[in-house]
Amino acid sequence: MDAESGRGAASARKKSWRSELVLAYQSLGVVYGEVATSPLYVYKSAFAGGDIDHSEGNEEIYGVLSLVFWTLTLITLLKYVLVVLRADDDGEGGTFALYSLICRRVRAGLLPGVGDSSAADDDLKEQRDGALLPPPASTVRAALQQRRELQWLLLLFALLGTSMVIGDGVLTPAVSVFSAVSGLKLSMVNEQHQYVLLPVTCVILVGLFALQHFGTHRVGFLFAPIVCLWLLCISTIGVYNIIVWNPHIYKALSPYYMYSFIQKTQVGGWMSLGGILLCVTGSEAMYADLGHFSQSSIKIAFTMVVYPSLVLAYMGQAAYISQHHNFERNHHIGFYISVPEKIRWPVLGIAILAAVVGSQAVITGTFSVIKQCCSLNCFPRVKIVHTSSTVHGQIYIPEINWILMILCLAVTIGFRNTKQMANAQGLAVITVMIVTTCFMSLVIVLCWNKNVVFALAFLLFFGAIEAVYFSASLVKFHEGAWVPIILSFTFLTVMCVWHYGTTKKYEFDVDNKVSISWLLNLGPSLGIVRVRGIGLIHTELVSGIPAIFSHFVTNLPAFHQVLVFLCIKSVSVPHVQPEERFLVGRIGLKQYRLYRVVVRYGYRDVQQDSLEFEKALVSSIAEFIRSGDSDKNGYPDGSESPYERLSIISKGLPFQEADGEVEGSPESSVRKDTNPNLVSSKSRRVRFVLPENAQINSEVCNELQELTEAREAGMSFIMGRSYMKAKSGSSLMKRIAINFIYEFLMRNSRGPAYAANVPHVSTLEVGMVCQV
Fold first, then answer.
1. Which pairs from 470-474 meet CB under 8 Å and 24+ separation?
2. What is the pLDDT of residue 691?
3. pLDDT digits (tens, 9 = 90+) for 468-523
4. Which pTM value belongs to this model?
5. Which of 104, 131, 491, 717 would give a disulfide with 163, using CB separation of 3.0 to 4.6 Å?
6. Which domains does the chain have, with CATH numbers?
7. What ranges make up the beta strands (E) of 540-580?
8. Are 46 and 275 spatial neighbours (Cβ–Cβ below 8 Å)?
9. Which residue has the higher pLDDT, 201 or 96?
């Protein structure tokens, strides 16, 4: 038995390693496209600005190589691969992952339902964290809990990093594709490239963005081979150049050459750091794409394939440049001059494909981060299209796609050279890295329970390195670095105003909600009638009656025979387990047929379409009725049901429709009973499938019968449309933010995801002016 168990364990380990290697191979095409194409423009960006010259002594090229090597080693390998990747939020990474980790740990946040200590979310598996913090960490947590300005600073940092990621989504395709196509300068005779370079770049970019709505699942299998071929190509060329031109180039990896470089070039060398910084573009993508792969697979791919290939590529370019000093101008220094002329055309084709793959990954990442912002109410609701039913996270956002394309073309046509585009990209990249460093220092203390000394050491060491690069990038403001500042300011303004307006609207709803007793007493006073069907009242509240419904029912005294107050709640965890998603409760007595349903989604969860959502909602209510939990939520006095009285419905009660096919909650398997007891309507179009030998009383049967009839009659959505207006006497900034910017964003944003495909005939919109 021991031998057999030993063989089984060995087989499991072998299978585990095999799957990790497959994930590592796949990650090459998704994660590393951007950093793999950085050799196209790093040396060119470092020398093109005129800050440093390529002298006969080679101090400059050796110094640049040394800086590239140690920057790549310290920032990408040491910081991201060995430290940051460990700070996953239930397997997810990125700026919002760090932010949500911190907010949950300190139980402090600015968005309703995000990072708060609401009892409603304490049941979530990811939220359970009762570990005590040591005194220094507890002091930090107390400061974050008590100081609202610190909470604002945390959120502002998260939104700043996100806005720079969006800016990177504009700049990376422009830089990568333009740099790849720039090889035409050496491959074409005379000056023909002047008339070809820009049009070819624009055509590739337009094609790249135009094909986004098809998704990448059909061609995604080509991404990893393309990046592998590209890495093999640049590393082979690098080895060739090292052997042929300068076998001793490895000596330039010594930190001494960094010191010598700075000593000789001084201010010019410091300003050239903005171009050298580009060797670590894409490092943040390793962390942001953590949810699609595993830590070990990303580490294996980088340390075993990407890192050695990049080092060989940079060494090979430096070896060639060190033996060639007859360049007409410094901006002619670049990747393609080190490529042997006989293979320049094939390398050009591979480079363009690799640039497209790297750009695709950045665009997809931009869609993903905007989707996270929408989930956390930090960005106006936009249309999110899921391009693949099998691949998690494959989304497409039409509005954002075309905005990115227009901005990307504007940057390409406006600058027309790598130097300024690279300056812009460098500032965006280093800003996101600084945000990550600051958040990581808090994670080390609050989440990992390490000594404050370790957090300070991490912050000071990496913060100092990144601050130097940030200053070198910022000084290029007039040479292209203004672009990410303008872009990030625009997106940051949109996100901050949307967050501010959403918060004010939520506060208005809380302050103006009416009690349940008010609703229950309306019948005799207004002569309210009940109409057939199920009415869904969308609300942000988890208790009480929203003011917009009281406004509706006062003017139109009728509502449906089954009324559901529906709250779609975003929580600061990446995923909510299906069995923890639906919370169902009862409002008032059973005969009122009033329910409250809270549906919880994580910031990376994919929300269901309207049809599947409707089925899951109805089956959850039916299971709530059948299970008997509803008996605990009836209040004879009509008082409000406290939040903790809501029941978690882990599996909805399945039902059959006319064709006899069992349908129910799509998030859990539905079991067909051999001889089920059926509760059906007279038309037999909908029947709930009950477990065998289920003991149910006539009252439950009647309630399920009525739910069945209401389901057959149809479902209507009552949506609130709040017209936000700043109160008289408000400051000028508040009036601009609420009356103009937020109102413009509200008019052009979309409704809740579940209602996106609901027919207009089934939707009733109720307008109301909110003075905030």
1. 470/427, 470/430, 470/431, 470/434, 471/270, 472/270, 472/271, 472/272, 472/273, 472/274, 472/277, 473/273, 473/274, 473/277, 473/423, 473/426, 473/427, 473/430, 474/427
2. 58
3. 999 999 998 888 899 999 999 999 999 999 999 888 888 888 888 877 667 666 65
4. 0.83
5. 491
6. 2-497 (1.20.1740), 513-771 (no CATH)
7. 558-571
8. yes
9. 201
